[in-house]
Amino acid sequence: MASRGKFTIVLMILQTIFIILFGIFVKYEKTDQADGQVPGIRNFYPMFKDVHVMIFIGFGFLMTFLKKYGYGSVGFNLLLGAVVLQWGTLVEGFFLHKFAQFSVSIVTLINADFAAAAVLISFGAVLGKTSALQLVMMSVIEIVLYHLNIYIGTEYFKAADIGGSMFIHVFGAYFGLAFSMVIYRKDVKAAEDDAGSVYHSDIFSMIGTVFLWMFWPSFNAAIAEGDGQYRAVVNTYYSLAACTVVSFALSSLVNKRGKIDMVHIQNATLAGGVAVGTAANMVIYPWGALIIGALAGVVSVLGYRFLTPLMDRIIRLNDTCGVNNLHGMPGLVAAFVGIVATAFAKEDAYGHSLKTVFPGRFNSTMGEEIRSAGTQAAYQAATVGTTLAIAIFGGLITGALLKPSFWEQPRDKQIHSDEDYWLLPDDGFPDRGFPDVKVITGQVGPIEMDNNTKI
Amino acid sequence: MASRGKFTIVLMILQTIFIILFGIFVKYEKTDQADGQVPGIRNFYPMFKDVHVMIFIGFGFLMTFLKKYGYGSVGFNLLLGAVVLQWGTLVEGFFLHKFAQFSVSIVTLINADFAAAAVLISFGAVLGKTSALQLVMMSVIEIVLYHLNIYIGTEYFKAADIGGSMFIHVFGAYFGLAFSMVIYRKDVKAAEDDAGSVYHSDIFSMIGTVFLWMFWPSFNAAIAEGDGQYRAVVNTYYSLAACTVVSFALSSLVNKRGKIDMVHIQNATLAGGVAVGTAANMVIYPWGALIIGALAGVVSVLGYRFLTPLMDRIIRLNDTCGVNNLHGMPGLVAAFVGIVATAFAKEDAYGHSLKTVFPGRFNSTMGEEIRSAGTQAAYQAATVGTTLAIAIFGGLITGALLKPSFWEQPRDKQIHSDEDYWLLPDDGFPDRGFPDVKVITGQVGPIEMDNNTKI
Amino acid sequence: MASRGKFTIVLMILQTIFIILFGIFVKYEKTDQADGQVPGIRNFYPMFKDVHVMIFIGFGFLMTFLKKYGYGSVGFNLLLGAVVLQWGTLVEGFFLHKFAQFSVSIVTLINADFAAAAVLISFGAVLGKTSALQLVMMSVIEIVLYHLNIYIGTEYFKAADIGGSMFIHVFGAYFGLAFSMVIYRKDVKAAEDDAGSVYHSDIFSMIGTVFLWMFWPSFNAAIAEGDGQYRAVVNTYYSLAACTVVSFALSSLVNKRGKIDMVHIQNATLAGGVAVGTAANMVIYPWGALIIGALAGVVSVLGYRFLTPLMDRIIRLNDTCGVNNLHGMPGLVAAFVGIVATAFAKEDAYGHSLKTVFPGRFNSTMGEEIRSAGTQAAYQAATVGTTLAIAIFGGLITGALLKPSFWEQPRDKQIHSDEDYWLLPDDGFPDRGFPDVKVITGQVGPIEMDNNTKI
């Protein structure tokens, strides 16, 4: 049960800390151009906007499928995003600049959005089963581990993961799943009938799906360079197309009466964007992108249809949005594809872009080769292993820290319901009345007065 | 009645063919830049994204107005788009490169989106009256004829049609209408009460309308050059504004009680983007763009109000979304405007852009004039004539091919309803219960288990 | 009660006037580039599109929260936008070019969108309480005063207001509030129960909120130059993040049971974009942007919670969307921040951008300083004062002009209802039946026939 005050205090303390730390560490980028133009605006801002739309409209509306958790889905998505844009900026700077002052560029904004993506993927695993308090604290802890993992993966392994399928999708999914496992409560079963969608909430959800689908080429290409950026766009575009066709085909097949399931269309159609992410800027050829997308569709639909219910029943691992099927397993496919593509990367296929796609293979000053393709492939494998380890271990610890009743995890009918945290209009929820809420709105000043403000 | 298996098999066969053909024919573009940048990214990617949004959000949500066909509208829109992005890439390459290997550029992606637009316009004419099987096969056939028509129009007539009002809108509309006429079944009347909207489905539809409206300047300017691109943006922007004002004015006028009809606001307000499409990059002046837009609003509202019901009653031509009023007739207006603007195009008004706007008039190597303005105008007329002929004839043939019961055209209450193809949540549809569906969801494993995945 | 004909005649007369005036005054921009490219396309078009989305999706859907005014919110938003895009282009040209011919550039399109923003903010103050006739006439009058104020503020005071927080937000809000005060009618109380939201209308509203939130950095940076543009993006991005965190924190605090109010999440989270607008391109530092955003969240939530109900009760000032809390007071905060930041602006912090951020301080030809920082700060203060005066006085006059019954202001149950102006589907409104509407749709030909068009 959400109590008054605690939520406010936690957020105000966090925001105060952010302001102080920004005052100490964060400064503006200096322009080096004759015309005073900061090049980041021209080169990265258009891509940044697409990523921004994916984070706040894409993830936010994708999760509105729950019949009674629409406010929480799009609302807490916005709140967690707002927390991470600030905290992610700080933590990234701390790792990269060793607690010296640092400047923010447009790429910094993109990276803060990427960090938000990881947190929002974890949010999907526990959607409707956690309090806003738990979600905010989870975000604060997860971001530190997220950047620790990226620091290891980029500074030491120098892994290639242009679309962040390992650093963002695998990390966010398995951190969230481990977290979900620890905070699991039997009363989730009591809220089963609120765990589904209604007709129009599925259509709200498709707003998120389609924006994610359309802008995923920008997500995978946002920080790519040269013709690697071109390949990232083309590969992602075609991978998603193939994934969509296969998702429709399998969704119908796995249903006894041949019917298509909106859960698959809302989620599995996007798996192609994840699965191609690590190798998006590599020379995998358009036909390779189609195969990767098709494979991702198969893995994702079968995961939703068979694996998720099993996990829920056998190991009490409850995955509200099925992030294992959209981000987890397709992310592992991406990591595998990345290892293979890295192992076979040759100069004749890549030309000058071999150095930009695989910076770890070449000396940054002299430019001569310091790692073979095979060695780099091994480092790719080490990166996904490290990512899994930090994500799962971190998720378990975080779950243990946030399970105590102090963090006000919702119970029974509060689960999968906005009722715990949100003022509801007099109509309650679209599919049934809410007598108790009616009473509330009768008692309380605020909603009365806020209603007046709209007269 | 949709059967299990057939839909899956057809999609899997298609996807397999796409992968094989991509493997044989499609390769990456080679960069020619010192910095390895592929110029297409900077010059065309921002426009591509807007077109992409129009195809998948614009068309997808515009069609969600039907009270019980929301899943099918946005879902099949995504499926058909995904099929055409792949198939359209291949067929365009076959025509342009005579079955030699070809590379994909960002312009290729834009053209694949344009091809999807034509198919989705045809989809609008038969929305709710066709099976997914019929829609997929229709797309496969239509794309071949679509590119045949463009090949004739651009290679031989060298027509100017920067916004594709002839090649995309006229073709898509009349192909779809001819197709609709052939597959017409009397039992459409039995589903009349499901053919309308409910209050919130009209608002979902406005998401599509507004995104189409906002990004139409990008649609008409996407592949334009130099100051022709500037004119395409400005002309489309003002044409849409005038069309919107006139659509509101007439919508109220043609109703006995002076009320505005959402059908007109959702559709007729967009006719200005179609009607200015062919001449968008020509020197028609801003006031000319306003007149074209206003005219389009008149044609479209009157079409919805009087012509569509007549066609339905008299020649049994049923047009679910009224594509004749949004794409067909405004496209013919665009073709006519294009003929006139072409006939009066002079060097003093166009300057250097005369060669880029009317490539057919000049020798590509030497650059001297080989066609007079009048001659080019005649070729413009020939292009719209050819487009109508191929579209109508092709639509009739395609309808005949896909009418057999093998293709599972929906009947009676399956018409205008997601019930035939989609798993429905327990609430059935927003405006009434679905006892039979409740039974289904009670019987079937999949939805049970998928519900669990969301707990 | 809306009558048939009057609405049509007014719109057709306006559109005819627009066409004539465009014919006399508006011409194309001449390109000065070797490649014929109009530079505006590359430099301003990407920003223009984001602003365009904010105007038509952002404002349009933000206002759909009313349970029975969804058609009017997104529909009239589109109509008023379409009127202002044309009329705003003309009036701006008249002021800047003294009734000589002028050319339209991409910046002209951005400025027309900005003008639409001011009108749509005023629309928010009277949402559901005015006829479409009143709204159209209000827009026509408001735009003249809007550009008069900008002319004074930019030509004489040479004020810095890159995000238009004074020229757009303060002006639009207080014009609308003064207008609302004059047209106030007691029967607004009779429609109290229609003044709220239903569950899914709040989610529609969040579509508007999130798009406004995401693209606000583009709004504040659209016409900024050099590194000032970079600062406008970064400052707005972080200001919005801090504002969002604080809005959630306070929304929960001001409710007796600690519940979050969607009204605050839909609106107050955006106040940070307004409050940072005037100083967005100035050197306020990221930590300063966070403080401004946090302050805006406090002002906005407290305004919704306490001030708006008070204004409604004590001075009969009814503010449907609470524009005073989202645009008015945060705009005044922006003006104050702008005065302070201007007073302390020094060369060493700004470098070469001091001249572009504060053009009023330097001679345009020679470039030497003609105004001190303090003097410019005084002019900033004069600008906000003039803006308030013109907005309030103009709003009062406009309200008096449009209050007569000739303008068909809605009464009683027509208030906050689409019933007065729109054909409604047979289901009436989602939360209850509409017997009278059922009768109407039974009588009238048009809706019957339009239904047929969808069969």
Automatic annotation (TrEMBL), chains A, B, C:
Entry keyword DNA-binding: no
What does the record list as GO biological process? ammonium homeostasis
> What is the organism field in this record?
Ridgeia piscesae (Tubeworm)
Q: Which residues form the Ammonium transporter AmtB-like domain?
A: 41-420
Organism taxonomic ancestry: Eukaryota, Metazoa, Spiralia, Lophotrochozoa, Annelida
Q: How does it sit in the membrane?
A: Multi-pass membrane protein
**Does this UniProt record's set of keywords contain Disulfide bond?**
no
GO molecular function per UniProt:
ammonium channel activity
State the UniProt keywords alphabetically: Membrane, Transmembrane, Transmembrane helix
Family, similarity comment: Belongs to the ammonium transporter (TC 2.A.49) family. Rh subfamily.
Pfam family for this entry, one: Ammonium_transp
Renumbered to this chain, the signal peptide range is none
Chief subcellular location equals membrane
TM ranges are 7-26, 46-66, 78-96, 102-128, 135-154, 166-184, 196-216, 236-255, 267-284, 290-307, 328-345, 377-402
Please state where this protein is localized: Membrane
Question: InterPro entries, from UniProt?
Answer: Ammonium/urea_transptr (IPR029020), NH4_transpt_AmtB-like_dom (IPR024041), RhesusRHD (IPR002229)
Q: GO CC terms for this protein? A: plasma membrane
Checking Gene3D superfamilies in the record gives:
Ammonium transporter AmtB like domains
Question: Know the name of this protein?
Answer: Ammonium transporter AmtB-like domain-containing protein
